[in-house]
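With this grant's support, we have settled on a layout for protein records. A representative record follows, to show the layout.
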Amino acid sequence: MNLFVCIDDTDNLDSIGTGELLENMMREAAVRKLGKSGFIVRYQFLIDDAIAYTSHNSAMCCTAQTNDRAAFTAFCETYLVHTAAEGSDPGLCILTDSDALDYTPLIAFGKRAQSEVLTKAQAYATADAFGSDVHLSEHGGTGIGIIGALAGAGLRAGKAEGRIKGKLHPPKDRIEWTTSEFAAAYGVERFADEEGNEICEDLLLRFELPTKLIYQKGKVTAVLVEKDGCRMPKPKLKKNKG
């Protein structure tokens, strides 16, 4: 069975982030032979004083495969109860990944969360319409994380654009790549410019600075920029906190 797994509001300012917690949870699920997962996508939601969030108000969502949905769900619930940070308000959403489902209401909920202040009641009402295809649960605090968890799952189901967790670091012994070589090495399915226009030709690029991939048009995408007449993956540099 294919699933989308999304969590939100599991951290505090001193803990590991929600993305790392989801990564650890899926790694443990694999060790227990309960399921295996794909890459994690971060979805950003509205920043507003009326919303309780740690620092960025974002949810993290991955795909997963399992042969025992009930056992997998029970594991995820227990994991969040025991590992979510003190003072957090964790929410968990597990959504069936199927071409037979019409995700329109969930996609709309996700998009609303990016521009509106939503409530838990709205989240539950939206989830209830999907019956057993949506698991939505609270695991501490106010449980308000269910809003972002459901919204993130909806956006991922709708192939909405988001940032893929993790950063790619260039190898020390190689700078020049063709785009086809880079795609094969790093699992990239698509190249695009900063405006989102797809780049189809096999180009030469220089990979010398860390970069982040994005999830765009339903594919793992590397954004290419031009510097000194050469194409390169868009650099993701550390922010100066000084």
The domain at 2-163 is CATH 3.30.70.2200 (Alpha-Beta Plaits). The chain has two domains: 2-163, 167-233.
